Amino acid sequence: MYKNLPPLFDELQTMRDNYFHTEIFNSSIHIRAVPDKWSVAESIYHCYLLLKLTRIISAYYLPIACAYMKVRRPKVKRYMDDMSNIYSGKTMKAPSILKPKMKREYTLLELRDLLEEETEKVKTCIASLTKEQCYWIRYPDPVPGYPNVIQVVKLLRIHEEHHYRVVLEREAKSRK
């Protein structure tokens, strides 16, 4: 794995550890503080769905992009790895594929396991990429500005942190 990727996954784990040890994440995670807003469990499940979608896209897209890169032999013009928080400001509506439709009430541990399993699968998808591939290959996603592999991993953390922060704030307000 390209050396700049493991620290990004470490950041993701640390962020999860911090949120998953809060009182709010360890209480009634299936109860919505606001009727039309997601519960803690739904927010976590939504983050899992985005991870899963990223992994599925990566499993098909990255081999094709790598093959194209071998044929074309492009040079990386800039090693961009900064990623702004596209989730700051007004919240966006989730596409239907990412809306949490949980068939049952998962425990917090089960939800964490889902996240961890998908994270490991994402790592496997990108493990063999070189530095050049990590920076040259761009995902076909216009919302975050066609991010490269490094930026996608950063976006996964930014996305989760955004949802966890929002749900914590909402839950804290409702408890007052």
From TrEMBL:
Biological source species: Oceanobacillus oncorhynchi
Stated name of the protein: DinB-like domain-containing protein
Domain of life: Bacteria
InterPro entries found in the cross-reference section: DinB-like, DinB/YfiT-like
Transmembrane segments: none
Pfam families the record matches: DinB_2 (PF12867)
Domain DinB-like per the UniProt entry, residue ranges: 30-166
